[in-house]
Design brief:
The structure holds 2 protein chains of 2 kinds. By secondary structure, chain A is α/β, with parallel strands linked by helices. Chain A is built from 20 helices and 8 strands. Helices cover 54% and strands 9% of the residues of chain B. Classes of the chains: A alpha/beta, B alpha/beta.
């Protein structure tokens, strides 16, 4: 029998070996956690803070560890239980069902942490849990910061507050320093889960090969997959997903009898361009995975299917277009230049002193600036060739553009006196709109825009 | 009840129209202007039936146009969770991330029209796919909590008490309170689907055959752009955790472009979705179909004149892209025509019109004689016939019947010839007579199309059949051509109206004393008008003391023309109070606001001064 790398006097070697096989590439973290946990009845560290990037195995490792060793625990996602009340009640509900099989106790509302401590003591006190450490795992713990200020510090010292054998484990993608309240709190034990290396990814992904193909064949495929995608994506879940989506294409030559499982070169030639296409389409969610699979099945070209970003053009009513162009000009041109661009007899302006020094940096880098409604309308009247009456329809179009998020209101939107707006669309968007309004987008617009670009 | 108003204020909500007996009252309005001799009731009835016909026609068009889109969506929803239902054991399905099926529905920027589309969408879904549909609007979902509340309330089909603040984590479901969380939703879903299965098949055959076995739960985000990133992200993350227990399908209603999804959701969240794109018909094409079916047809006796049609099309193309508004404008034309034109009683199917001619009163006959087109017709006749036409009602009626027939034939020919001409000209380079048939139609209504410069080919056909309608006798009966009325109602200009009211109160008050020759301030005008006129002469910042003095001078000269002008520091208390009231009214109307730049000054918010 193989000796496990994990060692712990409290658990049988077979269990540890099984656990080890379930958590590849995370052995050292698991062993660290095991030593902190100690034996079942021993008090552990009051709170543990585990952090690491997306899909570095935090949730998975904690779940596997607690389930395999059959440790009593409660597992709650803080995004899902978005208020402190829902969160506390969920913990109590799970606690009830995890201690007694025949629970069905009536649900008790829990309004504050004080109530929680009382109810928690009741729930734990009546059970055989007293001689075992109870683990409360709070996933996506960064959400705790959004709740009442006492929640996070109280969870950190729950052991002390309840005087029970309990350990709170916080899982998060951000570092502890961003949690620490100004007023100070109990410092948890922090543990870092590093990113999986390419070797780790290769090892983990290869483990779950389809039953009808050999492990080596699948490992070779994963190797090619990582070669293409590792540069852009290190998310284990996403890679797993991509691996499954494209595997049938990899197998195609083998299924058709054109190659055998060892013809790595042939297989590579077949799959590599396909994966590159996948990177530009399905990986970016330009097209959906089901559309990708359908294309693969029908042997279609991904070119036939237009991705999301192919549909950038927005069709707008005539005056909405001009309003948007006017808003863009108002957002990116300094007020002083309006006279020069939009007035017929603006007089001479000496070129040398025209631009102030700080204005010479591109305005596009600085982002849009707010402008008052009157300026927007003044520019609009100037760039539209025919006379525009300030009708209710024009004003309601401004509101529509705000609803569509093409403009945004600066400040409080209930402010009726002198509202200020910002234009939120890009130069490319404006160019596309201006182009469609062929000819009518007057020379002034062009001039003002070009002046802007070359700045 | 809610309003879309931008300002705070008092809003009147009228009781639902069912309770009021509309028709009788409205019919009275039709007759109230003149005595009973102009067939008011019959006109009203004709108007009603015509409008009903138009309404059902437009609804049918809308339905036909949406059919393709809805069919696609239905088949998408059918497939959405099928793979996981059928082949759960396969390696493929076990290993793949289970994404939330999402339909991105591009609807165009005419947000007002979306409601109708969503209504027919949920109807179709309810009939074919699933009874579990929730429609969410951004204004109801400022936070994830509100979103969950709305969602659960709509799905569990119950009353949600949003106002009871202390219990806002709960949803009231028929007396029992349910925790506002995904777990409750999943429990609910399990219970309703289980209940369905256990029911005797014979009893619920119809629903179970229409709906899938475990029907998806469809959540529609009506206005994707307005949702906050946080709410959407949280909701997607939460639901993707439970996608195995709760088969959710999302529908994003998008007005601009699908890129909004990527700008609202980061890759880590959008990668939880399986997004497919669905595009509704462009609103311009929709309009073309409406015009084609409503205007370029002989089915409807009512016609739009060139100017009116141009106003409606301009509002559509220049301002709102809204087909619904176009139809509303069309409705206004119908009502206005039947209301203002007594002879519109003849604006019905030809056979009916002929019958109605016989029963016309003498007054109505006189109305016909007054029609400009009829007068032109009379002038072209020989003198004996002229006299009989103008004196004998019976002879007039016979002639009118003939003329109506002519008009009908003209319309029949007009439509077919117009379509022919359109086929010819739409393939010409640069589209000299327009790309769309509506442009050609407008051109023909406006002028003799064969005389226009663009029309250079030798199509004699048009000369014979495409005569502008206002050259035809009796065209006034079926054509509505009062564009100014329409413009006034549909393209209101609040700023101009306010300015007119304050600058020239005579325009609205019709008080002879207020009649001024422009320019100078009439001292008999209401206080606010005087204050307004004075403020027009100021710059960006207005000194209140100066303003008060000027105001007092004007007012005093009106009341005591002979008295001496009092010195500046002795303004009458009452005049002072009146001034304060006028200024605060101007502030309320948004012309001025208090300024912090200078004490005792207010800032102008409108033109001038800047």
């Amino acid at each position: 029998m193989k000796m496990p790398n994990l060692e712990h006097p409290a658990y049988p070697a077979a269990t540890l070996l099984h656990l080890e096989s379930l958590v590849p590439c995370r052995e050292s973290q698991v062993s660290m956690l095991l030593s902190i946990f100690g034996e079942r009845q021993q008090f552990s560290f009051p709170s543990i803070f585990i952090y690491g990037h997306t899909s570095s195995g935090k949730t998975y490792v904690m779940q596997t560890l607690l389930n395999t060793l059959k440790l009593p625990h409660v597992f709650v996602n803080c995004v899902e239980y978005f208020t402190s009340r829902l969160l506390l009640e969920e913990i109590l509900i799970q606690l009830q069902s995890c201690c007694s099989e025949a629970e069905q106790t009536s649900h008790v509302p829990c309004d504050s942490f004080n109530d929680f401590v009382r109810l928690f003591k009741q729930a734990v006190g009546s059970q055989e849990l007293q001689d075992q450490t109870l683990y409360i795992v709070l996933d996506r713990a960064e959400q705790l910061r959004e709740m009442e200020a006492n929640i996070l510090p109280a969870f950190l010292r729950l052991q002390e507050l309840t005087d029970r054998n309990v350990t709170v484990v916080l899982l998060s993608e951000i570092v502890w320093e961003l949690f620490r309240p100004n007023t100070g709190c109990f410092e948890p034990f922090t543990l870092y889960f590093p990113d999986y290396s390419i070797g780790h990814l290769q090892k983990i992904l290869s483990q779950s090969h389809p039953p009808e193909y050999s492990a080596d064949f699948y490992a070779a495929y994963i190797n090619i997959l990582l070669g293409v995608f590792y540069m852009v994506c290190r998310d284990l879940k996403e890679l797993q997903h991509l691996a499954v989506l494209n595997f049938s294409k990899y197998c195609e030559p083998v299924v058709n009898g054109e190659a055998n499982e060892r013809d790595t070169r042939k297989l590579w030639k077949n799959i590599e361009p396909h994966l590159k296409k996948a990177m530009q389409t399905v990986y970016l969610r330009e097209i959906s995975s089901s559309q990708w699979e359908r294309l693969q099945r029908d042997d279609g070209e991904p070119g036939q299917l237009k991705g999301l970003s192919a549909h950038t053009h927005v069709e707008l009513p005539y005056y909405s277009k001009f309003l948007l162009i006017a808003a863009y000009l108002a957002s990116y041109n300094p007020v002083r230049t309006d006279k020069r661009f939009f007035l017929k007899h603006h007089g001479k302006i000496r070129k040398t002193n025209f631009m102030k020094k700080h204005e010479k940096t591109s305005n596009h880098l600085l982002g849009p600036k707010p402008f008052p409604l009157d300026r927007l309308l003044a520019i609009l009247y100037s760039i539209v060739d025919n006379r525009v009456a300030p009708t209710a329809n024009i004003f309601s179009q401004i509101t529509s553009l705000v609803t569509l998020q093409l403009l945004s209101v600066v400040g409080h939107n209930d402010q009726l006196d002198g509202p200020r707006y910002k234009c939120t669309v890009s130069l490319d968007f404006i160019r596309a709109i201006a182009r469609y309004e062929h000819g009518s987008a007057s020379v002034k617009t062009e001039r003002a825009q070009t002046a802007n670009e070359y700045r | 009840m809610s309003t879309c108003s931008v300002s705070k204020g008092c809003f009147v909500f009228k009781p639902s129209p069912k309770k009021r007996r509309v028709s009788q009252k409205t019919a009275n309005y039709f007759g109230e202007r003149k005595n009973g001799s102009d067939d008011a009731e019959l006109r009203f009835a004709t108007c009603q039936s015509l409008w009903n016909q138009i309404k059902s026609e437009t609804e049918q068009i809308q339905e036909d146009l949406n059919k393709q889109l809805l069919d696609n969506l239905v088949s998408f929803l059918r497939q959405s969770h099928s793979e996981f239902r059928e082949r759960t054991a396969e390696w493929n399905c076990r290993m793949k991330t289970r994404e939330i099926p999402t339909a991105a529905l591009i609807l165009g920027v005419n947000v007002t029209d979306h409601d109708l589309t969503f209504r027919s969408l949920s109807e179709v879904l309810q009939n074919n796919i699933t009874p579990y549909i929730a429609l969410l609007e951004a204004k109801d979902c400022p936070g994830i909590k509100n979103l969950m509340q709305k969602l659960m309330g709509q799905l569990m089909n119950c009353y949600v008490d949003v106002d009871s603040l202390e219990d806002e984590d709960y949803v009231q479901v028929s007396q029992s309170r349910i925790r506002c969380s995904m777990t409750s939703l999943i429990n609910w879903y399990e219970s309703v689907t289980k209940k369905k299965d256990s029911e005797t098949p014979s009893k619920k055959q119809t629903t179970s055959s229409r709906h899938l076995q475990s029907p998806p739960v469809v959540v529609i985000f009506k206005d994707m752009e307005s949702f906050t990133t946080k709410v959407l992200q949280d909701f997607v993350v939460i639901s993707s955790q439970h996608i195995r227990e709760l088969p959710l399908v999302l529908i994003f209603g998008i007005a601009t472009s699908p890129m909004i999804i990527h700008s609202l959701l980061p890759h880590s969240v959008s990668s939880l979705l399986c997004i497919e794109l669905f595009q509704s018909l462009s609103c311009k094409e929709h309009l073309s179909t409406i015009i084609d079916k409503l205007l370029l047809t002989t089915q409807l006796p009512f016609k739009l004149g060139e100017k009116v049609l141009q106003v409606l099309i301009n509002i559509f193309l220049y301002h709102d892209f809204s087909v619904q508004n176009f139809i509303k404008g069309f409705q206004l034309c119908v009502v206005e025509h039947f209301y203002s034109q007594p002879l519109s009683v003849l604006c019905c199917q030809l056979a009916d019109a002929k019958k109605r001619v016989n029963s016309l009163s003498h007054d109505q006959c006189e109305n016909i004689r007054r029609l400009p087109s009829f007068r032109r017709y009379v002038e072209r006749q020989v003198s004996e016939k002229q006299i009989t036409l103008l004196t004998e009602d019976n002879f007039l009626k016979e002639t009118v019947q003939k003329l109506l027939e002519d008009l009908h034939v003209y319309h029949e020919n007009y439509v077919s010839v117009l379509r022919c001409l359109h086929v010819f000209t739409s393939s010409l380079p640069k589209y000299p007579l327009g790309k769309q048939i509506r442009e050609l139609h407008c051109a023909c209504l406006e002028n003799r199309v064969w005389e226009t410069e663009e029309y250079e080919s030798s199509l004699q056909l048009a000369r014979k059949y495409l005569v502008p309608a206002d050259h035809k006798t009796l065209h006034e009966i079926v054509y509505f051509n009062t564009a100014s009325v329409l413009r006034e109602h549909l393209n209101a200009a609040p700023r101009i109206a306010l300015h007119t009211a304050l600058n020239n109160p005579y325009c609205y008050l019709k008080n002879q004393a207020l009649k001024s020759d422009g320019g100078n301030i009439s001292n008999k005008a209401p206080d606010i008008c005087i204050a307004y006129k004075l403020h027009l002469e100021c710059g960006r910042l207005i000194n209140l003391v100066d303003w008060l003095e000027a105001f007092s001078t004007v007012v005093v000269s009106a009341e005591r023309p002979n008295a001496d002008v009092p010195s500046s520091d002795q303004v009458d208390d009452i005049i002072h109070a009146r001034f304060i009231r006028a200024v605060s009214e101007l502030e309320l109307l948004g012309f001025i606001k208090p300024s912090k730049q200078k004490t005792d000054h207010v800032a102008r918010l409108t033109w001038g001064g800047c």
